């Protein structure tokens, strides 16, 4: 598995989990609970304090889906440029830009460093 495949698999998993939890926006309540904003008093999580509840609510499924979409676009841009370079479209500017893109991919993979498929050579 290369870095691009690894990132695509992690993003797909993040998206699937988010979709499974995306029935409605999440809201933090003063009681330290995180609820789904449907008018139903049921909660999805109970946090130790208000700050934890706010943190959980701020990282709701909609945000996860938006972040995964943005990260996927970065991976797509990297692959598009890799294809152009592979077709002989090498210029110093394009190669420099691709080097930056690769650094960004390594940074995007870093939060997944504890995953068993993560390879240390990807570490920035």
Question: What's the alpha carbon Rg, rounded to whole Å?
Answer: 19 Å
- SSE order, as H and E? HEEEHHH
Strand content: 5-15%
How many structural domains?
Answer: 1
Order of the strands making up the biggest sheet: 1-2-3
Overall 3D geometry? elongated
Oligomeric state of the chains?
single chain
Query: Helix- and strand-based class?
Result: mainly alpha
Give the CA-CA distance, first to last residue.
18 Å
Low-confidence stretches: none
The number of helical runs is 4
Mean pLDDT: 89
Could you describe the largest sheet, including whether it forms a barrel? 3 strands, antiparallel
Looking at this protein, list some descriptive labels:
124 residues; 3-stranded antiparallel beta sheet; mainly alpha
Summarize the structure in short.
With 124 residues, the chain is mainly alpha-helical.
